[in-house]
Write a structure and sequence with these properties.
This protein is α/β, with parallel strands linked by helices and 229 residues long. The chain has one domain: Rossmann fold (3-Layer(aba) Sandwich). The chain has six helices and five strands; from the N terminus they run E-H-E-H-E-H-E-E-H-H-H. It has a five-stranded parallel β-sheet with strand order 2-1-3-4-5. Helix 1 (59-69) links the parallel strand 1 (34-42) and strand 2.
């Protein structure tokens, strides 16, 4: 469900962290951006999961390993939780300090990878506003707007294991016009559906449907005997 703190209509109309861009959007046109895959995110997974080392199977760690063997294709910035896990990670792939969200605007292709669940703080919603081509990993979890998205229309689908990431990256470079159109359609979708008004509508429909299932009449705080604070 939509996170309330990411859709604060008193502070902004659009999702966080997109609304924090000082320019109000990406100033660089698509053709001027670097034709690289870019990922920006945290080092998710069980904190002590490096023992094993299980960390190599976390989706974002796989992207980290991809970075080491494909320095000209994937640019990845993330931070980690566990010092021991970070030591092992550095031996397998580069690790850099996470950049501001605005750094996404410098790249044509953005890699969207799950964390522990669907990426938090509405990362995909924010990324879709940027006009970049989203490479979205097949996800086991979902946000409220995912059912409306269509692969190859709003994003380039990527296998959950990232095994086909190279293939999809080569496709995008060989089909620049189609890749750019995917980014434009994603941006148009975001402008139509991913703003506070549409989210308020979603909450209204959801709560109205839940109300019909309640076998009791809701009561106010006064009815329950609570005193005003």
């Amino acid at each position: 469900m939509p996170a309330p703190w990411s859709w604060d209509d008193k502070a902004h109309r659009w999702p966080q962290p997109f609304s924090k861009l000082r320019s109000g959007g990406c100033p660089k046109p698509y053709a001027s951006r670097k034709p690289l895959l870019y990922f920006r995110g945290g080092c998710n997974g069980p904190t002590r999961g490096w023992r094993g080392p299980i960390w190599q199977f976390y989706p974002r760690k796989r992207a980290n390993i991809h970075t080491a063997s494909r320095p000209g294709a994937l640019n990845k910035h993330e931070w980690g939780w566990d010092a021991e896990m970070e030591k092992e990670m550095r031996a397998r792939g580069p690790k850099r300090k996470i950049e501001p969200f605005a750094a996404n605007c410098g790249y044509r292709y953005l890699l969207h990878v799950d964390g522990n669940v669907a990426s938090s703080r509405l990362a995909l919603a924010s990324e879709m506003h940027l006009g970049a081509t989203i490479f979205k990993q097949d996800s086991f979890s979902s946000e409220h707007f995912y059912p409306l998205l269509r692969p190859w229309r709003h994003y380039v689908p990527v296998d959950r294991s990232l095994a086909d990431l190279d293939e999809k990256y080569r496709w995008a470079n060989a089909n620049a016009r189609e890749a750019e159109e995917i980014g434009r359609r994603a941006q148009a979708f975001a402008r139509e559906h991913l703003h506070t008004g549409s989210v308020a509508c979603y909450w209204w429909q959801l709560l109205s449907a839940l109300a019909d299932l309640q076998p009791f009449a809701p009561r106010t705080g006064a009815d329950l005997g609570f005193r005003p604070a």
